[in-house]
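Would you mind writing out a protein's amino acid sequence and the numbers that encode its backbone to help me picture the idea?
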Amino acid sequence: MLDTRIALPMLTLALAACDVRTEDPPSYKLQVTESPPAVVGERSHLVLDVLRADGTKATQFEAHHGQAMHLIATTYDLEDFQHVHPRLRSDGSFSVELDFGRASPYALFAEVTPTASETGGAGQVLRTTVWPAGAQSGFAQLDASSAFDGRMAYRATLQDTQLTIAPLAAPLQANVPVELSIAVDDDQGEPVELEEWMGMPVHAIAISPDFRQFLHFHGGFTSSSQHGHGAHGGHHQPHASGGRGPLAVHATFPVAGLYKLWVQVKRGERVITAPLVLEVR
């Protein structure tokens, strides 16, 4: 059933490489219909409608990175994470299936861009909460003791893939732009071939435990590592297409505190997701 008891707070939107950000409340809302009703431990079909302030339904959307909607679903404890792309139906509704595997409410963040005639081409982040039957409330308690703050490298091993975020010149600070340098290697330490996923070789999504901040960044290969391309604009200019070598993600975190970050890359037919905790001073 839909959550009518707890409203997620106003959030900040950051869209990708251009780092567009707004703190204005969205002029649309997301309406979700479950079929069958969501139950903990089961998969449910959702129909999502984007409603204008007057209650009428928007039905025309601009594609963003190849999709009319990017949907992020995460549990209130930020342990379960799903990044999916609902199908736009002929009636203007979106259709998707989600797994409700944990006994928690699921926060949904839908990134959409209604046609430019309505919004001038501005992207919207719309959010709501689905409460599967059997869910228990409770927000994340992130562990600062193991958080990446830029002073030491972060490394994760995900099956046969290693992901490393290099140390920064200075600790992460609020409102200070930063370039995250990310290496993706095989289990022998050699750079792996990565493919584009939704138009970019790397996606990075950050959410604060109070849900006030939702940030979605993209990045590309640095010019020195991107094979098949010459350098354009210097060593740290990212390229979007696939290849091997370090990735560069330009990010800005608007407020200090802890964030849960998911870094996503595509290797072969697999989308690899590396979760970590960030600390921004």
Q: What stands out?
A: Residues 12-130 form a domain with the Immunoglobulin-like fold (CATH 2.60.40.10). Residues 116-119 form the longest helix (4 residues). The longest strand covers residues 42-52.
